[in-house]
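fwd from M.: "can u put these together and see what the complex looks like"

so here's what she sent:
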Amino acid sequence: MSNEMDVDSGDVPPQVVGTDAGPSPAEENDTPGTDISMPQQPPDDSPPQPQPPAQTGPNYKIRYSLSGHTMSISSIKFSPDGSKLASSGADKIIKLWDTYTGDVLRTLVGHTEGISDIAWSNDGDYLASASDDKTIRIWDMKVGTEIKTLLGHTNFVFCVNYNPNSNLLVSGGFDETVRVWDVARAKSLKVLPAHSDPVTSVSFNHDGTLIVSCAMDGLIRIWDADSGQCLKTLVDDDNPICSHVRFTPNSKFVLASTQDSTIRLWNYQTSRCVKTYSGHTNRTYCLFACFTNTNGKYVVSGSEDTKIYIWDIQTRQILQVLEGHRDVVLAVATHPTKAIIASASMEKDLTIRLWYDNSEGA
Amino acid sequence: MNESLISPFNITHPTTVQTSLFALASFARFDPTGRYVATARVDGTAAIWDLDTRAAVRILDGHVKAVSSLDWSRYSRYLLTASKDWNVVVWDLASTCVPAQRCATLRFDAPVVSASFHPRNSRIILALMSTGEAYLVDQRKAHRARVELCEVQEESDDEGAGTSNRVRSAITVARFDPSGKHIFMGTSGGYILVFNTRTKTMVARHRITGAGAIKGLEFTKNGRQLVSNSADRTLRQFTVPTYPPPTADDEYIEHELEPTHRFNDPINKTAWHAMSYSPDGEWLAGGAADTATHKIYIWDISNEGQFANALDGGREPLLYLHWHPSKSSIASTTNQGNILIWHCPHPERWGAFAGGFEELDENVEYEEREDEFDIVHMPLPFSIPYDYLIFLQEDEADMIRRKMKEEEEEVDIDTVPEAAKPREIQLHGVLPSDEDITWADEEPDDDRQNWTMRVIMEEDWDI
């Protein structure tokens, strides 16, 4: 289980780090004791101090480090069955990786500018990509070809997501609109004048009836997917730039990352913040945040201090900090069924790392 | 899921047309999930429209004459189309072939006027011929059969000449009840016949006084109420009786059903083309057979069946209507082939655009709670360093403490609230271990709950 390290990532020699192969210098801190320590505390908002590692806490360790992108990696997403990982970057390409071996399966070329976000359809057959070339492209992942180009955004497209049925796409961008698309016909169905600054994140809820969007204007808005009406606006007192938002799996709350180095869980019915997660650094970039409930319920986010933070959803305490990247960790993704976290970093690093929680035997 | 944000107490009947689909359809029916409508065209094709994108997503070309009826299977995977070309075609929508391939064809000896799937198993099909005969076709290996459902004729007649010479009256409507236990059939003589699906024997015969030929039958979702449409231009609602299990000697109940409500148009005396219950059974919609206008009448069943509203859909007369399986929405078809999707619009709340505001209909005097703005001193949580707190105003520190305490509360991020889940409906007349239900569940089809139709990404769509 632990020695399947022979990884061929295709065009670029892979950098593979094994769990048993002895830690390389960069991963020396990965022993459980130091994982949990928090070297630098941001002085302004002190979070609860982390507890000593509990037996049941997360114990993620690096399994693979994947190289291939030549510019900052902007987004990584596991396929719905978890077998593949797609990554996109400022180098205008999309790469497809095997989650369990780390092999490069495919490189998709077509966008004429950098790509900011990607999204899988629910059957895993298609991938949508949002790019600075103002288009969204749909890729057939079985064949590896581009099959649709969605034209309409008048500026960079920054975020994209499918609805659960995967007949609709929702996208947001620097033209400050949220657009809903008919995927099969590459047709724009709705243009919501959603925000007054670039839209940084947009997604559907679990049954496709609601859309949540957030923007650099600091607002989180919830929309009725059918009528396009705005149903709710959430705003924090200090109005920090909002960089990522998503519904909880049951759609009762939204998780929002803001550039005051805080992630908040909002009850949007009552407009109240019910949980605050802090300790990481987020002041400049739009970092992704994820849920995982494979063997414990955690919130996972990258950080501008090159680490990845894992919080307990209920206690809001930092349970593990993953170190190893050498630049800002923009994107993280959690495996749909196994205790695997993927993370991706910017220019000075350019690797995608796959972290496995060995305690689950993944 | 969005209901709670829109307005929880606003679930009512539709009032206005939301959209019109140019479908060239002769009628349209929602699928059980409510995401699609299936439309039938006079040229023999059927089409499936996605209500999210308002575009046709499947074209089913299988008949050479007009499609007379169509039905969805329980979880929307299968669709059947019946046609005047004597065929019933079953389509498996899991197939993504273009053009779509049929998965079964049933041939009959006469034009088919209606056909439907058994509500629990799409391999049992009920078909009605234009000649007035109804067949139950069972395609399962162990039960393979095609049985004509025949009305029992009295042998020893009490009244002598009256019924013994009676010509067997033609069957004009045939439907499963929502559980699939019984088949209800209307006859040209104004009777409703009830058959047991498993034994295919008649269990009851109900005379409907004054109705004339029965033209249509519709059930509420739970199967407790039944509405009939008949030649006398009146819709009658009945409470469905509970039928005993069929006996060995083929006894049946002869019983006159008395309607609980009668619905008609007392002024224009219009006939009805179609009727449909709302999902909760609290509203009944009737599509008027008016030759000049598109009129839908809504009656409030929960309020003694009072007339509630007449919806005007413009100049194109109505042919058919069908209520959405879960929402307050109706699909009505015009004689020009357009499908009108009716909904109940929610007024745009502009207050939703501003954070932390709530719209009020009138001024409210705000009454603060006793301790709402009090500063309560509590011991500091250990996690906030003391030297950090001394920089804060005292009340600010209290606010942080209060906030920290509030955040201690557990949140549930995984469990979908019960109200958002599709409710399991208690079907009328179904027992816990019902022989008829077990029989229908033998050799099940591949129709599974939460089945989703795949999106076909076609280069060019030829609708």
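replying to her w this: The radius of gyration of chain B is 28 Å.
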